[in-house]
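Workshop exercise sheet. Pairs work together: one partner reads the sequence aloud, the other fills in the structure field after running the prediction. Swap roles for the next sheet.
Pair: D.N. / O.F.
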Amino acid sequence: MDKLILNLIHRPEMVPEYAEKVTGHGKTEDIGRKALLTESLDIFKVQQEAAHKNGLKTTIQMTYASLFNDEAVALAKEHHETYGDEIALSLLGLPCKEFRDKYKTKDFCIWMFSMEDKKQIVNDVFEKFYERFGFYPESTGSYYMDAELTNYIKEKYPMVKCAVATCWEEGPKAYHTCNNSWYTLFDGGPWAPWIPSKQNTHAPAANEAEDSGIVAIPHLSRDLIACYDGNGSNFGTHPQNVLRGMIYDSKTWEYPYLYNLIDQYRDLAKYNNGYAYNMMFVGPGWMNKMGRWEAPYELLKKSYEDGCAYYGQLKKEDKLMDLTMAEFADYYRGKKRYTEPECALWRDILYGSDKQVFWYCDPYLRACVNMDQGGAIVDLRPYAAKLKWEVGIGTKHVQDASYPFLIQEKYRAGYFTHYAGEGTVRSAKVCYNGEEVDLCLCRTKAHFSEEKDAEGKITRILTLDPVEIEFDGLTVKLQTKEYFEEGGSNIRIERKILEMSDPSAKVEINEYIVACYGTTEYPEDMSGITLEAIGDGKKESIVYEYKCREAAVAGAKEVSAVIPAIETKVSLTAKDTAAEGYIREGYAFSPMFTLGYKKTMADKEVFTTWLNLEKAN
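Structure field:
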Protein backbone atom coordinates (compact mmCIF):
# COMPACT_ATOMS: atom_id res chain seq x y z
CA MET A 1 0.00 0.00 0.00
CA ASP A 2 1.33 3.42 -0.97
CA LYS A 3 1.71 6.27 1.49
CA LEU A 4 -1.02 8.88 1.86
CA ILE A 5 -0.27 11.67 -0.62
CA LEU A 6 -0.68 15.17 0.84
CA ASN A 7 -0.98 18.47 -0.99
CA LEU A 8 -0.63 21.28 1.55
CA ILE A 9 -1.48 24.58 -0.12
CA HIS A 10 -1.25 28.09 1.29
CA ARG A 11 -2.02 31.40 -0.35
CA PRO A 12 -0.89 34.83 0.88
CA GLU A 13 -4.33 36.24 0.19
CA MET A 14 -3.76 39.91 0.96
CA VAL A 15 -7.48 40.71 0.86
CA PRO A 16 -9.17 37.55 2.20
CA GLU A 17 -12.83 37.04 1.38
CA TYR A 18 -15.10 38.77 3.91
CA ALA A 19 -12.14 39.84 6.07
CA GLU A 20 -12.12 43.53 5.18
CA LYS A 21 -15.41 44.14 6.97
CA VAL A 22 -14.09 42.45 10.11
CA THR A 23 -10.76 44.25 10.12
CA GLY A 24 -12.34 47.58 9.18
CA HIS A 25 -14.68 47.60 12.20
CA GLY A 26 -17.52 49.26 10.30
CA LYS A 27 -15.40 51.82 8.48
CA THR A 28 -15.95 52.56 4.81
CA GLU A 29 -14.65 49.70 2.69
CA ASP A 30 -10.95 50.00 1.88
CA ILE A 31 -9.33 46.85 0.48
CA GLY A 32 -5.98 48.58 0.62
CA ARG A 33 -6.24 49.13 4.38
CA LYS A 34 -2.78 48.55 5.86
CA ALA A 35 -4.11 46.69 8.91
CA LEU A 36 -5.83 44.19 6.63
CA LEU A 37 -2.75 43.57 4.50
CA THR A 38 -0.45 43.26 7.51
CA GLU A 39 -2.70 40.83 9.35
CA SER A 40 -3.19 38.69 6.24
CA LEU A 41 0.54 38.36 5.70
CA ASP A 42 1.13 37.62 9.39
CA ILE A 43 -1.37 34.76 9.27
CA PHE A 44 0.24 33.37 6.12
CA LYS A 45 3.55 33.33 8.01
CA VAL A 46 1.91 31.42 10.90
CA GLN A 47 0.53 28.82 8.47
CA GLN A 48 3.86 28.38 6.76
CA GLU A 49 5.61 28.00 10.12
CA ALA A 50 3.08 25.34 11.22
CA ALA A 51 3.87 23.32 8.10
CA HIS A 52 7.63 23.71 8.14
CA LYS A 53 8.14 22.89 11.81
CA ASN A 54 6.37 19.59 11.11
CA GLY A 55 8.65 18.82 8.18
CA LEU A 56 6.02 19.52 5.51
CA LYS A 57 6.56 21.43 2.30
CA THR A 58 3.81 23.55 0.83
CA THR A 59 2.59 24.90 -2.45
CA ILE A 60 2.46 28.69 -2.14
CA GLN A 61 -0.29 29.89 -4.45
CA MET A 62 0.49 33.56 -4.98
CA THR A 63 -2.62 35.69 -5.41
CA TYR A 64 -2.76 38.67 -7.75
CA ALA A 65 -2.87 41.01 -4.74
CA SER A 66 0.21 39.35 -3.21
CA LEU A 67 2.22 39.94 -6.40
CA PHE A 68 2.17 43.66 -5.60
CA ASN A 69 3.56 43.04 -2.10
CA ASP A 70 7.36 42.91 -1.90
CA GLU A 71 7.37 41.09 1.44
CA ALA A 72 5.02 38.34 0.19
CA VAL A 73 7.16 37.83 -2.92
CA ALA A 74 10.36 37.72 -0.85
CA LEU A 75 8.83 35.20 1.57
CA ALA A 76 7.80 32.90 -1.29
CA LYS A 77 11.32 33.00 -2.75
CA GLU A 78 12.91 32.34 0.63
CA HIS A 79 10.62 29.40 1.44
CA HIS A 80 11.14 27.92 -2.01
CA GLU A 81 14.91 27.97 -1.49
CA THR A 82 14.87 26.85 2.15
CA TYR A 83 12.04 24.30 2.31
CA GLY A 84 11.42 23.27 -1.30
CA ASP A 85 7.99 24.91 -1.40
CA GLU A 86 6.53 25.36 -4.87
CA ILE A 87 5.72 28.91 -5.96
CA ALA A 88 2.42 28.64 -7.81
CA LEU A 89 -0.28 31.07 -8.89
CA SER A 90 -3.87 31.26 -7.66
CA LEU A 91 -6.73 32.79 -9.59
CA LEU A 92 -8.38 33.37 -6.23
CA GLY A 93 -7.48 36.57 -4.44
CA LEU A 94 -8.01 38.82 -7.45
CA PRO A 95 -9.55 41.76 -5.56
CA CYS A 96 -7.06 44.50 -4.82
CA LYS A 97 -6.87 48.18 -5.71
CA GLU A 98 -4.96 47.47 -8.92
CA PHE A 99 -7.52 44.90 -10.09
CA ARG A 100 -10.57 47.01 -9.30
CA ASP A 101 -9.06 50.10 -10.90
CA LYS A 102 -8.55 48.16 -14.13
CA TYR A 103 -11.65 45.96 -14.32
CA LYS A 104 -14.17 48.22 -12.52
CA THR A 105 -15.86 45.30 -10.80
CA LYS A 106 -16.18 43.58 -7.43
CA ASP A 107 -16.42 40.14 -9.08
CA PHE A 108 -13.66 37.80 -7.88
CA CYS A 109 -14.66 34.37 -9.23
CA ILE A 110 -12.63 33.85 -12.40
CA TRP A 111 -15.12 31.39 -13.94
CA MET A 112 -17.96 33.94 -13.73
CA PHE A 113 -16.27 36.55 -15.94
CA SER A 114 -16.88 36.75 -19.68
CA MET A 115 -14.47 34.70 -21.78
CA GLU A 116 -12.89 37.90 -23.05
CA ASP A 117 -12.23 39.06 -19.48
CA LYS A 118 -11.04 35.60 -18.40
CA LYS A 119 -8.32 35.73 -21.04
CA GLN A 120 -7.29 39.26 -20.11
CA ILE A 121 -7.19 38.44 -16.39
CA VAL A 122 -5.12 35.29 -17.02
CA ASN A 123 -2.68 37.30 -19.11
CA ASP A 124 -2.41 40.04 -16.47
CA VAL A 125 -1.92 37.64 -13.55
CA PHE A 126 0.50 35.27 -15.28
CA GLU A 127 2.62 38.09 -16.70
CA LYS A 128 2.74 39.86 -13.32
CA PHE A 129 3.89 36.55 -11.79
CA TYR A 130 6.66 36.29 -14.39
CA GLU A 131 7.70 39.88 -13.72
CA ARG A 132 8.12 39.12 -10.00
CA PHE A 133 9.72 35.66 -10.20
CA GLY A 134 11.32 35.37 -13.63
CA PHE A 135 9.46 32.17 -14.52
CA TYR A 136 5.88 31.04 -15.11
CA PRO A 137 4.04 28.84 -12.58
CA GLU A 138 3.46 25.12 -13.09
CA SER A 139 0.33 25.13 -10.92
CA THR A 140 -2.72 27.34 -10.60
CA GLY A 141 -6.31 27.06 -9.43
CA SER A 142 -9.56 28.57 -8.20
CA TYR A 143 -12.73 27.31 -6.54
CA TYR A 144 -13.71 26.22 -10.04
CA MET A 145 -12.07 26.36 -13.43
CA ASP A 146 -14.32 25.88 -16.44
CA ALA A 147 -13.06 23.94 -19.45
CA GLU A 148 -12.72 26.98 -21.70
CA LEU A 149 -10.59 28.75 -19.08
CA THR A 150 -8.39 25.67 -18.55
CA ASN A 151 -7.97 25.16 -22.29
CA TYR A 152 -6.89 28.78 -22.73
CA ILE A 153 -4.37 28.62 -19.86
CA LYS A 154 -2.87 25.38 -21.21
CA GLU A 155 -2.61 26.85 -24.70
CA LYS A 156 -1.05 30.15 -23.57
CA TYR A 157 1.04 28.78 -20.67
CA PRO A 158 1.77 25.13 -21.51
CA MET A 159 4.05 24.67 -18.48
CA VAL A 160 0.96 24.58 -16.21
CA LYS A 161 0.40 20.94 -15.24
CA CYS A 162 -1.79 21.06 -12.11
CA ALA A 163 -4.79 23.10 -10.93
CA VAL A 164 -7.30 23.29 -8.12
CA ALA A 165 -10.40 22.95 -10.29
CA THR A 166 -13.57 22.38 -8.25
CA CYS A 167 -15.11 22.16 -4.77
CA TRP A 168 -16.85 18.83 -4.20
CA GLU A 169 -20.64 19.35 -3.94
CA GLU A 170 -20.36 23.11 -3.53
CA GLY A 171 -23.89 23.59 -4.82
CA PRO A 172 -27.37 24.47 -3.56
CA LYS A 173 -26.72 22.92 -0.13
CA ALA A 174 -23.81 25.29 0.50
CA TYR A 175 -25.74 28.14 -1.09
CA HIS A 176 -28.66 27.72 1.32
CA THR A 177 -26.45 27.61 4.40
CA CYS A 178 -24.86 30.90 3.34
CA ASN A 179 -28.20 32.71 3.49
CA ASN A 180 -28.66 32.27 -0.27
CA SER A 181 -25.72 34.56 -0.94
CA TRP A 182 -22.83 32.32 -2.02
CA TYR A 183 -23.29 31.87 -5.75
CA THR A 184 -20.77 29.09 -6.28
CA LEU A 185 -22.75 26.24 -7.76
CA PHE A 186 -20.67 23.29 -8.95
CA ASP A 187 -22.11 20.01 -7.78
CA GLY A 188 -21.43 16.84 -9.69
CA GLY A 189 -17.65 16.64 -9.94
CA PRO A 190 -14.99 14.25 -8.60
CA TRP A 191 -14.02 14.32 -4.92
CA ALA A 192 -10.44 13.22 -5.60
CA PRO A 193 -7.81 14.17 -8.21
CA TRP A 194 -8.63 13.54 -11.86
CA ILE A 195 -7.62 14.56 -15.39
CA PRO A 196 -10.36 16.87 -16.69
CA SER A 197 -11.60 16.55 -20.24
CA LYS A 198 -11.29 19.43 -22.68
CA GLN A 199 -15.08 19.48 -22.99
CA ASN A 200 -16.09 19.71 -19.33
CA THR A 201 -13.94 20.17 -16.23
CA HIS A 202 -16.06 17.85 -14.08
CA ALA A 203 -15.99 14.96 -16.56
CA PRO A 204 -12.67 13.07 -16.51
CA ALA A 205 -10.87 12.51 -19.81
CA ALA A 206 -11.34 9.04 -21.29
CA ASN A 207 -8.21 9.17 -23.45
CA GLU A 208 -5.35 11.36 -24.62
CA ALA A 209 -7.52 13.16 -27.18
CA GLU A 210 -9.86 14.38 -24.41
CA ASP A 211 -7.01 15.26 -22.00
CA SER A 212 -7.00 18.96 -21.06
CA GLY A 213 -3.29 18.73 -20.25
CA ILE A 214 -3.57 19.26 -16.50
CA VAL A 215 -4.13 17.16 -13.41
CA ALA A 216 -6.97 18.63 -11.37
CA ILE A 217 -7.31 18.44 -7.62
CA PRO A 218 -10.36 19.28 -5.49
CA HIS A 219 -10.47 22.48 -3.47
CA LEU A 220 -10.91 20.47 -0.24
CA SER A 221 -11.01 16.84 0.87
CA ARG A 222 -14.47 16.42 2.36
CA ASP A 223 -16.56 13.91 4.28
CA LEU A 224 -18.28 11.91 1.53
CA ILE A 225 -21.43 11.35 3.60
CA ALA A 226 -21.80 14.44 5.79
CA CYS A 227 -20.90 16.78 2.94
CA TYR A 228 -23.41 15.16 0.59
CA ASP A 229 -26.21 15.08 3.16
CA GLY A 230 -25.57 18.61 4.41
CA ASN A 231 -23.42 21.68 3.93
CA GLY A 232 -20.00 20.57 2.75
CA SER A 233 -18.32 23.65 4.14
CA ASN A 234 -18.65 22.13 7.63
CA PHE A 235 -17.04 18.78 6.91
CA GLY A 236 -13.53 18.82 5.49
CA THR A 237 -9.91 18.12 6.35
CA HIS A 238 -9.46 21.89 6.47
CA PRO A 239 -9.44 22.30 10.31
CA GLN A 240 -11.50 25.48 10.22
CA ASN A 241 -14.27 23.57 8.40
CA VAL A 242 -14.51 21.34 11.44
CA LEU A 243 -14.72 24.37 13.72
CA ARG A 244 -17.39 25.94 11.52
CA GLY A 245 -19.36 22.71 11.83
CA MET A 246 -18.98 22.94 15.64
CA ILE A 247 -17.49 19.42 15.63
CA TYR A 248 -15.17 19.83 18.59
CA ASP A 249 -15.17 19.82 22.37
CA SER A 250 -15.68 23.42 23.48
CA LYS A 251 -14.01 22.71 26.84
CA THR A 252 -10.90 20.78 25.78
CA TRP A 253 -10.57 22.19 22.24
CA GLU A 254 -10.08 18.70 20.87
CA TYR A 255 -11.45 17.49 17.52
CA PRO A 256 -11.08 13.72 17.02
CA TYR A 257 -13.37 13.96 13.97
CA LEU A 258 -10.64 15.81 12.07
CA TYR A 259 -8.18 12.94 12.56
CA ASN A 260 -10.85 10.31 11.84
CA LEU A 261 -11.63 12.09 8.58
CA ILE A 262 -7.96 12.15 7.54
CA ASP A 263 -7.70 8.46 8.46
CA GLN A 264 -10.74 7.56 6.39
CA TYR A 265 -9.04 9.19 3.39
CA ARG A 266 -6.00 7.03 4.14
CA ASP A 267 -8.35 4.03 4.15
CA LEU A 268 -9.39 4.72 0.54
CA ALA A 269 -6.12 3.08 -0.55
CA LYS A 270 -7.99 -0.25 -0.14
CA TYR A 271 -10.24 0.62 -3.07
CA ASN A 272 -7.76 2.40 -5.34
CA ASN A 273 -4.81 0.12 -5.95
CA GLY A 274 -2.97 1.31 -2.84
CA TYR A 275 -3.35 5.01 -3.64
CA ALA A 276 -4.86 7.54 -1.23
CA TYR A 277 -4.88 11.33 -1.41
CA ASN A 278 -5.67 14.23 0.88
CA MET A 279 -5.35 17.99 0.59
CA MET A 280 -5.50 21.00 2.87
CA PHE A 281 -5.96 24.40 1.23
CA VAL A 282 -6.18 27.39 3.51
CA GLY A 283 -6.31 31.13 3.04
CA PRO A 284 -5.49 33.57 5.85
CA GLY A 285 -9.09 34.79 6.12
CA TRP A 286 -9.89 31.64 8.11
CA MET A 287 -7.55 32.64 10.94
CA ASN A 288 -8.68 36.21 11.48
CA LYS A 289 -7.49 37.79 14.72
CA MET A 290 -11.11 38.67 15.53
CA GLY A 291 -12.00 34.95 15.51
CA ARG A 292 -14.52 33.11 13.33
CA TRP A 293 -17.34 30.56 13.62
CA GLU A 294 -17.77 31.43 17.32
CA ALA A 295 -14.16 30.34 17.81
CA PRO A 296 -11.42 32.67 19.10
CA TYR A 297 -8.20 33.19 17.17
CA GLU A 298 -6.33 30.98 19.65
CA LEU A 299 -8.51 27.99 18.75
CA LEU A 300 -8.29 28.72 15.04
CA LYS A 301 -4.50 28.77 15.32
CA LYS A 302 -4.36 25.66 17.52
CA SER A 303 -6.54 23.62 15.17
CA TYR A 304 -4.33 24.44 12.22
CA GLU A 305 -1.13 23.66 14.09
CA ASP A 306 -2.63 20.38 15.34
CA GLY A 307 -3.69 19.44 11.81
CA CYS A 308 -0.16 20.03 10.50
CA ALA A 309 1.26 18.11 13.46
CA TYR A 310 -0.90 15.08 12.62
CA TYR A 311 0.29 15.08 9.01
CA GLY A 312 3.86 15.59 10.25
CA GLN A 313 3.58 12.59 12.56
CA LEU A 314 2.30 10.41 9.70
CA LYS A 315 5.29 11.51 7.63
CA LYS A 316 7.71 10.63 10.46
CA GLU A 317 6.09 7.19 10.61
CA ASP A 318 6.68 6.82 6.84
CA LYS A 319 2.92 6.72 6.20
CA LEU A 320 2.67 10.01 4.30
CA MET A 321 4.41 11.68 1.37
CA ASP A 322 4.09 15.46 1.05
CA LEU A 323 4.20 16.64 -2.55
CA THR A 324 3.87 20.04 -4.12
CA MET A 325 1.11 20.39 -6.71
CA ALA A 326 3.51 20.13 -9.65
CA GLU A 327 5.19 17.07 -8.10
CA PHE A 328 1.78 15.50 -7.55
CA ALA A 329 0.77 16.02 -11.20
CA ASP A 330 3.80 13.99 -12.29
CA TYR A 331 3.09 11.33 -9.66
CA TYR A 332 -0.58 11.05 -10.67
CA ARG A 333 0.13 10.66 -14.36
CA GLY A 334 2.58 7.90 -13.55
CA LYS A 335 0.10 6.20 -11.25
CA LYS A 336 -3.32 6.30 -12.93
CA ARG A 337 -4.78 5.15 -16.25
CA TYR A 338 -7.35 7.35 -17.99
CA THR A 339 -10.13 4.81 -17.47
CA GLU A 340 -9.10 3.83 -13.95
CA PRO A 341 -11.92 4.82 -11.60
CA GLU A 342 -11.82 6.48 -8.21
CA CYS A 343 -13.69 4.42 -5.61
CA ALA A 344 -14.71 5.20 -2.04
CA LEU A 345 -16.58 2.83 0.26
CA TRP A 346 -17.37 5.42 2.92
CA ARG A 347 -18.86 5.04 6.38
CA ASP A 348 -20.38 7.57 8.74
CA ILE A 349 -17.76 8.77 11.25
CA LEU A 350 -19.67 11.78 12.56
CA TYR A 351 -23.21 10.93 13.63
CA GLY A 352 -22.77 7.43 15.05
CA SER A 353 -25.03 5.76 12.49
CA ASP A 354 -24.27 2.62 10.50
CA LYS A 355 -24.71 4.46 7.20
CA GLN A 356 -22.44 3.38 4.38
CA VAL A 357 -22.23 4.67 0.82
CA PHE A 358 -20.10 3.79 -2.19
CA TRP A 359 -18.88 6.50 -4.56
CA TYR A 360 -17.64 5.62 -8.03
CA CYS A 361 -16.20 8.01 -10.62
CA ASP A 362 -14.69 7.36 -14.06
CA PRO A 363 -14.74 9.14 -17.46
CA TYR A 364 -18.28 7.92 -18.18
CA LEU A 365 -20.22 8.33 -14.96
CA ARG A 366 -20.25 9.32 -11.32
CA ALA A 367 -22.53 7.33 -9.04
CA CYS A 368 -23.40 7.02 -5.37
CA VAL A 369 -24.78 3.76 -3.96
CA ASN A 370 -26.56 4.01 -0.60
CA MET A 371 -26.53 0.86 1.53
CA ASP A 372 -29.13 2.37 3.88
CA GLN A 373 -31.45 2.11 0.86
CA GLY A 374 -30.65 -1.46 -0.09
CA GLY A 375 -27.88 -0.54 -2.49
CA ALA A 376 -29.99 1.94 -4.47
CA ILE A 377 -28.18 4.39 -6.74
CA VAL A 378 -29.03 7.81 -5.30
CA ASP A 379 -26.79 10.08 -7.39
CA LEU A 380 -25.89 9.63 -11.04
CA ARG A 381 -24.03 12.01 -13.37
CA PRO A 382 -23.75 11.03 -17.06
CA TYR A 383 -20.15 11.98 -17.87
CA ALA A 384 -20.42 9.92 -21.05
CA ALA A 385 -22.11 12.94 -22.63
CA LYS A 386 -19.02 15.12 -21.92
CA LEU A 387 -21.51 17.97 -21.89
CA LYS A 388 -20.16 21.31 -23.08
CA TRP A 389 -21.35 23.68 -20.35
CA GLU A 390 -19.95 27.16 -20.76
CA VAL A 391 -19.99 29.31 -17.64
CA GLY A 392 -19.77 33.02 -16.94
CA ILE A 393 -21.12 36.33 -18.11
CA GLY A 394 -22.36 36.07 -21.70
CA THR A 395 -23.24 32.35 -21.45
CA LYS A 396 -26.44 30.51 -20.51
CA HIS A 397 -24.90 29.66 -17.12
CA VAL A 398 -23.52 32.76 -15.44
CA GLN A 399 -23.05 31.08 -12.03
CA ASP A 400 -24.25 27.46 -12.30
CA ALA A 401 -21.30 25.26 -13.28
CA SER A 402 -22.75 21.99 -11.92
CA TYR A 403 -22.68 18.83 -14.02
CA PRO A 404 -26.35 17.82 -14.51
CA PHE A 405 -27.71 14.77 -12.76
CA LEU A 406 -30.08 12.02 -13.83
CA ILE A 407 -30.58 10.93 -10.22
CA GLN A 408 -30.10 13.12 -7.14
CA GLU A 409 -31.89 12.17 -3.94
CA LYS A 410 -31.38 15.53 -2.23
CA TYR A 411 -32.81 17.65 -5.04
CA ARG A 412 -35.31 15.14 -6.45
CA ALA A 413 -36.52 13.34 -3.31
CA GLY A 414 -35.06 9.86 -3.79
CA TYR A 415 -37.20 7.00 -2.50
CA PHE A 416 -38.67 8.72 0.54
CA THR A 417 -41.19 11.08 -1.01
CA HIS A 418 -44.32 13.09 -0.37
CA TYR A 419 -47.75 11.49 -0.56
CA ALA A 420 -47.78 11.77 -4.36
CA GLY A 421 -45.23 11.51 -7.13
CA GLU A 422 -41.86 9.81 -7.27
CA GLY A 423 -38.27 10.72 -6.52
CA THR A 424 -35.19 9.85 -8.55
CA VAL A 425 -33.56 6.52 -7.69
CA ARG A 426 -32.32 3.27 -9.26
CA SER A 427 -33.69 0.38 -7.25
CA ALA A 428 -35.95 -2.70 -7.43
CA LYS A 429 -39.29 -3.81 -6.03
CA VAL A 430 -40.17 -7.36 -5.03
CA CYS A 431 -43.86 -8.30 -5.39
CA TYR A 432 -45.88 -11.28 -4.10
CA ASN A 433 -49.65 -11.78 -4.05
CA GLY A 434 -50.39 -8.08 -4.34
CA GLU A 435 -47.77 -7.01 -1.76
CA GLU A 436 -44.82 -4.88 -2.86
CA VAL A 437 -41.54 -4.11 -1.05
CA ASP A 438 -38.96 -1.70 -2.42
CA LEU A 439 -35.36 -2.66 -1.67
CA CYS A 440 -34.86 0.99 -0.66
CA LEU A 441 -36.49 -0.07 2.63
CA CYS A 442 -33.93 -2.82 3.26
CA ARG A 443 -30.79 -1.58 4.98
CA THR A 444 -27.64 -3.55 4.28
CA LYS A 445 -23.85 -3.37 4.13
CA ALA A 446 -21.46 -3.70 1.21
CA HIS A 447 -18.12 -5.40 0.66
CA PHE A 448 -15.68 -4.31 -2.06
CA SER A 449 -13.71 -6.59 -4.36
CA GLU A 450 -12.10 -6.62 -7.80
CA GLU A 451 -11.82 -9.17 -10.56
CA LYS A 452 -9.73 -9.15 -13.74
CA ASP A 453 -10.82 -10.79 -16.97
CA ALA A 454 -8.64 -12.55 -19.56
CA GLU A 455 -7.99 -9.24 -21.35
CA GLY A 456 -6.82 -7.58 -18.13
CA LYS A 457 -9.95 -5.44 -17.65
CA ILE A 458 -10.72 -4.86 -14.00
CA THR A 459 -14.26 -4.81 -12.66
CA ARG A 460 -15.01 -3.31 -9.26
CA ILE A 461 -17.68 -5.26 -7.40
CA LEU A 462 -19.97 -4.36 -4.52
CA THR A 463 -21.37 -7.44 -2.80
CA LEU A 464 -24.23 -6.51 -0.49
CA ASP A 465 -25.20 -8.50 2.58
CA PRO A 466 -28.41 -10.47 1.89
CA VAL A 467 -31.71 -8.94 3.01
CA GLU A 468 -34.85 -10.73 4.16
CA ILE A 469 -38.22 -9.57 2.84
CA GLU A 470 -41.31 -10.75 4.69
CA PHE A 471 -44.62 -11.04 2.85
CA ASP A 472 -47.85 -12.49 4.17
CA GLY A 473 -47.05 -16.19 3.94
CA LEU A 474 -43.60 -15.93 2.37
CA THR A 475 -40.09 -14.87 3.38
CA VAL A 476 -37.57 -14.14 0.63
CA LYS A 477 -33.80 -13.89 1.17
CA LEU A 478 -32.25 -11.85 -1.63
CA GLN A 479 -28.72 -10.70 -2.42
CA THR A 480 -27.59 -7.84 -4.65
CA LYS A 481 -24.25 -7.51 -6.44
CA GLU A 482 -23.26 -4.42 -8.40
CA TYR A 483 -20.49 -4.44 -11.01
CA PHE A 484 -18.57 -1.43 -12.31
CA GLU A 485 -16.59 -2.53 -15.37
CA GLU A 486 -13.65 -0.27 -16.16
CA GLY A 487 -14.30 1.57 -19.42
CA GLY A 488 -17.79 0.09 -19.66
CA SER A 489 -20.04 3.15 -19.26
CA ASN A 490 -22.55 0.98 -17.40
CA ILE A 491 -23.44 -0.56 -14.05
CA ARG A 492 -24.49 -4.21 -13.95
CA ILE A 493 -26.83 -5.26 -11.14
CA GLU A 494 -27.54 -8.88 -10.18
CA ARG A 495 -30.37 -9.90 -7.86
CA LYS A 496 -30.25 -13.48 -6.64
CA ILE A 497 -32.86 -15.24 -4.58
CA LEU A 498 -30.85 -17.24 -2.07
CA GLU A 499 -33.74 -18.79 -0.20
CA MET A 500 -37.54 -18.76 0.07
CA SER A 501 -39.63 -20.13 2.93
CA ASP A 502 -41.74 -21.83 0.22
CA PRO A 503 -39.28 -23.08 -2.43
CA SER A 504 -42.12 -23.55 -4.92
CA ALA A 505 -43.29 -19.93 -4.70
CA LYS A 506 -42.79 -17.31 -7.41
CA VAL A 507 -42.21 -13.60 -6.93
CA GLU A 508 -42.03 -10.74 -9.40
CA ILE A 509 -39.02 -8.44 -9.43
CA ASN A 510 -39.37 -4.96 -10.86
CA GLU A 511 -36.00 -3.37 -11.72
CA TYR A 512 -36.45 0.34 -12.32
CA ILE A 513 -34.87 3.75 -12.64
CA VAL A 514 -36.80 6.95 -11.94
CA ALA A 515 -34.86 9.87 -13.41
CA CYS A 516 -34.99 13.41 -14.73
CA TYR A 517 -32.29 16.02 -15.28
CA GLY A 518 -31.17 19.21 -13.58
CA THR A 519 -28.62 20.90 -11.33
CA THR A 520 -30.83 22.35 -8.57
CA GLU A 521 -34.05 21.49 -6.73
CA TYR A 522 -36.16 23.18 -9.35
CA PRO A 523 -37.66 21.16 -12.25
CA GLU A 524 -36.47 21.52 -15.81
CA ASP A 525 -38.65 21.34 -18.92
CA MET A 526 -39.04 17.64 -19.72
CA SER A 527 -40.76 18.28 -23.06
CA GLY A 528 -39.13 16.50 -25.96
CA ILE A 529 -37.56 13.66 -23.97
CA THR A 530 -38.15 10.45 -25.94
CA LEU A 531 -38.89 7.19 -24.11
CA GLU A 532 -38.63 3.90 -25.98
CA ALA A 533 -39.12 0.19 -25.31
CA ILE A 534 -37.70 -1.97 -28.09
CA GLY A 535 -38.23 -5.71 -28.64
CA ASP A 536 -38.15 -8.13 -31.57
CA GLY A 537 -40.44 -6.60 -34.14
CA LYS A 538 -42.08 -4.23 -31.67
CA LYS A 539 -41.31 -0.74 -30.46
CA GLU A 540 -43.22 1.54 -28.11
CA SER A 541 -42.35 5.23 -28.01
CA ILE A 542 -43.49 8.19 -25.90
CA VAL A 543 -42.45 11.78 -26.51
CA TYR A 544 -42.70 13.46 -23.12
CA GLU A 545 -45.72 15.75 -22.76
CA TYR A 546 -46.55 15.34 -19.04
CA LYS A 547 -49.51 13.05 -19.88
CA CYS A 548 -48.76 10.19 -17.47
CA ARG A 549 -48.65 7.61 -20.28
CA GLU A 550 -46.93 4.23 -20.12
CA ALA A 551 -46.17 1.36 -22.46
CA ALA A 552 -44.61 -2.11 -22.23
CA VAL A 553 -42.95 -4.61 -24.56
CA ALA A 554 -42.59 -8.32 -23.75
CA GLY A 555 -39.03 -9.55 -24.17
CA ALA A 556 -37.71 -5.99 -24.54
CA LYS A 557 -34.08 -5.69 -25.60
CA GLU A 558 -33.84 -2.16 -24.24
CA VAL A 559 -35.85 0.52 -22.49
CA SER A 560 -34.39 3.99 -22.87
CA ALA A 561 -34.73 7.74 -22.58
CA VAL A 562 -33.01 10.34 -24.77
CA ILE A 563 -32.68 13.73 -23.06
CA PRO A 564 -31.69 16.33 -25.67
CA ALA A 565 -31.09 19.10 -23.13
CA ILE A 566 -28.09 17.24 -21.71
CA GLU A 567 -27.21 15.19 -24.83
CA THR A 568 -27.65 11.97 -22.87
CA LYS A 569 -29.19 8.59 -23.53
CA VAL A 570 -29.87 6.42 -20.48
CA SER A 571 -31.10 2.86 -20.85
CA LEU A 572 -31.75 -0.39 -19.05
CA THR A 573 -31.03 -3.72 -20.70
CA ALA A 574 -31.68 -7.23 -19.36
CA LYS A 575 -29.99 -10.59 -19.79
CA ASP A 576 -33.28 -12.48 -19.68
CA THR A 577 -35.26 -12.22 -22.92
CA ALA A 578 -38.46 -13.22 -21.08
CA ALA A 579 -38.52 -10.02 -19.03
CA GLU A 580 -41.07 -7.33 -19.83
CA GLY A 581 -39.63 -3.87 -20.42
CA TYR A 582 -41.72 -0.79 -19.69
CA ILE A 583 -41.53 3.00 -19.96
CA ARG A 584 -43.52 5.56 -18.03
CA GLU A 585 -44.00 9.27 -18.54
CA GLY A 586 -44.41 11.59 -15.56
CA TYR A 587 -46.76 14.49 -14.98
CA ALA A 588 -46.39 18.12 -13.95
CA PHE A 589 -46.47 17.45 -10.19
CA SER A 590 -43.94 14.63 -10.63
CA PRO A 591 -41.80 15.55 -13.65
CA MET A 592 -39.78 12.33 -13.87
CA PHE A 593 -39.63 9.36 -16.21
CA THR A 594 -39.37 5.68 -15.37
CA LEU A 595 -37.65 2.84 -17.21
CA GLY A 596 -37.98 -0.72 -15.94
CA TYR A 597 -38.07 -4.47 -16.34
CA LYS A 598 -40.43 -6.96 -14.69
CA LYS A 599 -39.70 -10.65 -14.37
CA THR A 600 -41.12 -13.60 -12.46
CA MET A 601 -38.46 -15.35 -10.39
CA ALA A 602 -38.24 -18.65 -8.56
CA ASP A 603 -35.96 -19.80 -5.76
CA LYS A 604 -32.20 -19.69 -6.56
CA GLU A 605 -32.73 -17.70 -9.76
CA VAL A 606 -30.71 -14.63 -10.76
CA PHE A 607 -31.93 -11.57 -12.69
CA THR A 608 -29.29 -9.34 -14.27
CA THR A 609 -29.84 -5.85 -15.67
CA TRP A 610 -27.52 -3.11 -16.91
CA LEU A 611 -27.83 0.64 -16.49
CA ASN A 612 -26.14 2.17 -19.55
CA LEU A 613 -25.10 5.74 -20.39
CA GLU A 614 -24.28 7.19 -23.81
CA LYS A 615 -23.86 10.54 -25.48
CA ALA A 616 -26.90 11.45 -27.58
CA ASN A 617 -26.37 14.15 -30.19
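Discussion prompt: The first strand starts at residue 4 and ends at 10. What would you look at next?
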